[in-house]
Design goal:
The protein is an alpha+beta fold. 32% of the residues lie in helices and 36% in strands. A hairpin with a 2-residue loop joins β1 and β2. α3 runs antiparallel to α5.
């Protein structure tokens, strides 16, 4: 983006290239791609960007403008209410737990109606999901401030995965080489028990929290 500086102030924000008239001279839209920054600055046009806030955690406050070789507009961050954030996080945990249990509810119904018993692995998984949900809700309730909320939703992990190889005939194999990557994982959506019925990821090796 660009802006037009008029009398030392931002007069107009140009969000996409378009013809522009300055001091009774009309310039074509291609000046924004053909001209250098110095040439644009000579007629009062400078690069422009806005630094917003993370709307998940902050309300957007007043804007401050810094005019230099580039014009930067920065918005103040106003903390959202921590109690409301925690309430929403706990509601999301409950919804995720219900969704995970719903996948095997039919097995429970079948067993209750005299059909095949629920596999032990599934029963253990359903118990673990409920326990994980309770643990997560307690952890969220204990979060003392906004920084703690943000940290809970961005815990650092290192993931190790096998390298995928694709043969000429399209056959895919994994390993033995591995590669590491850093990930920030929300404990609201991550850290749940592994579904015994889920398809196994052939590339996955490990996921370790960074402490």
């Amino acid at each position: 983006m660009f802006c037009l500086i008029e009398n030392g102030q931002v007069g107009r924000v140009i969000r996409s290239p378009a013809s522009i008239t300055i001091n009774d001279i009309t310039y074509p839209r291609n000046i924004f791609t053909k001209w250098s920054k110095a040439e644009l600055a000579d007629i009062g046009i400078r690069p422009y960007r806005e630094v917003g806030v993370d709307s998940k955690y902050y309300w957007q406050g007043a804007a401050s403008t810094e005019i230099g070789d580039e014009v930067v507009v920065t918005y103040a961050a106003i903390d959202r209410d921590v109690a409301d954030l925690k309430k929403n996080m706990k509601a999301q945990v409950k919804a995720l737990a219900a969704s995970k249990l719903a996948d095997t509810d039919w097995m429970v119904t079948r067993a209750m109606e005299g059909g095949t018993a629920v596999p032990e692995a599934v029963t253990a998984y359903r118990v673990a999901v409920r326990e994980a949900s309770n643990t997560k809700e307690a952890e969220i309730e204990a979060l003392a401030d906004l920084d703690a909320v943000k940290a809970y939703e961005a815990k650092p992990y290192v993931e190790v995965r096998k390298v995928k190889h694709t043969a000429e005939d399209g056959t895919e194999t994994y390993g033995p080489e591995t590669e590491e990557s850093n990930r920030n994982i929300s404990m609201v959506t991550g850290g749940w028990p592994t579904d015994p019925l889920a398809e196994v990821d052939p590339a996955f090796v490990s996921l370790t929290e960074v402490v």
